[in-house]
Amino acid sequence: xxxxxxxxxxxxxxxxxxxxxxxxxxxxxxxxxxxxxxxxxxxxxxxxxxxxxxxxxxxxxxxxxxxxxxxxxxxxxxxxxxxxxxxxxxxxxxxxxxxxxxxxxxxxxxxxxxxxxxxxxxxxxxxxxxxxxxxxxxxxxxxxxxxxxxxxxxxxxxxxxxxxxxxxxxxxxxxxxxxxxxxxxxxxxxxxxxxxxxxxxxxxxxxxxxxxxxxxxxxxxxx
Length: 223
Known about the structure:
Elements: H1 6-18, H2 27-40, E1 44-46, E2 51-54, H3 62-72, E3 79-80, H4 81-89, H5 95-110, E4 114-121, E5 124-131, H6 133-148, H7 155-166, H8 179-190, H9 193-220
Antiparallel strand pairs: 1-2, 2-3, 4-5
C-alpha cells in the first residue's frame, strides 16, 4: 500500500463526519491541503503575499498532479491563493473540482481507505462512500499520540491538525482531560508557517461562503 497522504487522511476524517467528499464547506479545505502538500514537496511556492508560484517539480500524487495542471493552465507566473480557490471551488463550472475529487477518491480506494457502493434511489442510482473504520481509528490514534506527546511536531501533523481544527473536527476526538494538552499544542502550531497559510485560506473560504450566501438570498429573497 502507498503511504497515506495528509489529504487522504483529512478526507477520511471528513467522510466520517459528512459522508461525502463534496460540499461547499469541505472542498476548499481539500484544495488547500493539496496546495500545501505541494508546497512541502517543493512543487510550488507560496509567497509572503499568498501568491502561488509553480516550480518545475511535478507532483507524485495523482490528485496533486491534476491540480498542478489546472493551476498551470491559468497561464500566470504568480496566482493569488484566493483566485485559485474561487476558480476551482466557487466558479461557474465545477468540472475541474469534480475531476480532482474523483482522482482523490480513486487514490483513497486504492489505499483501501474507502469502499464505493451503488444504491438505488427515487431518481436513479446513487454512489455511497463507506470508510474503513479500522483505518479511520488508526489515523485518529496517530493524531492523538502525536499531539499529546512532547516533542517537535512534523509538518504533516501540523497540516492535518490545522485542517481538522479549521473544520471543527479536531476537538471531537479528544476527551475533556486531553483537551488542555491539545490547547497547548494548538498554541504551538498557531505560529507555524503552515498554520498561518491555513488561517489565510480559512479567511478566504469564509469570505467566499458569505458572498455566495448573500447572492443566493438576493436572488431568491429572504426565507
